[in-house]
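Appendix C reproduces, verbatim, an entry submitted by the partner laboratory led by Prof. M.T., so that reviewers can inspect both the input and the predicted structure.
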Amino acid sequence: MLFDWIFGMFSNDLAIDLGTANTLIYAKGKGIVLSEPSVVAVKKGTSQVLKVGREAKEMVGRTPASIVAVRPLQDGVIADFDLTEQMIRAFIVRIHNRKALVRPRIVIGVPSGITQVEKRAIRDSAEQAGAREVYLIEEPMAAAIGANLPVQEPSGNMVVDIGGGTTEVAVISLSGMVYSHSIRIAGDEMDEAVIQYLKRKYNLLVGERTAETIKIQAGSAYPFNEPRKMDIKGRDLMDGIPKTLTVTDSDIREALHDPIYAILDAVKTALERTPPELAADIADKGIVMTGGGSLLHGLDTLIGLETHLKVTIAEDPLSCVVLGAGKVLDELDLLKMVCLES
């Protein structure tokens, strides 16, 4: 089953952020013990795993016909249980080779839009593997706790968690989510937008990894202080030969327009649906952004200008969900309040 090896090999209680782009594991008393891309390289037509994590990600777009690099999580949820199990098993072996006969508690971060069926599947896998207790925590709540927001107080906290597969917008008060909305537009959608833009405007075909690099180095939601240029390599769709092209940051900003404004619309909708008392708190405190997508240059500035609110990026945005899930392991009362019901 999915979490078989985790419980057999760890004496520590665990928190896991199973992300579309990256998987992070936190061990009680040790902190974050693993952060790797959620990618598995398998032999085509079989479930034989060849590489996982960073090594598998290096293969994306570069494999021979006999090997396929797969992401077993799509849009924030498990798309392939068998490969997810094998990926996590490999990660655990990498961290810890000693077996322990302890049945740990485990906290797993899940998207706020997860279905009952998906919840049940994750919970069953963990229980059958021998977990003493299994808790599911919604990612925006975990991100808010990881970003040190006062979630237990009777005041509004707004968090925008932009991951690889989903963007989660939530308003939290008294250890509960007053409003939450999950959209399947995030980092992956931005990469795809870059690919389509270059294809449409310059007849240049680039791969996923190149698109991600372009987004990180030249992507922005708001102009840089000084214009940026970047040389990119791809295949010319007209004559089929490799080609190098220079693009500017304004090109990439244009490419990213639709996904950025979809995220902005989700934030505005959340503000419109927030009760007035909590809206007043958010006006005082502002919005906190977490997740890798929040690192896109100028996204905080753009959201701030469009909403007229203060927008801050959490101290360690990539790790907020797993750190928050790890914190609730230490506070049983908080755990009982914030975990999802079966």
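The chain has a mean pLDDT of 87. Additional entries are available on request from the coordinating office.
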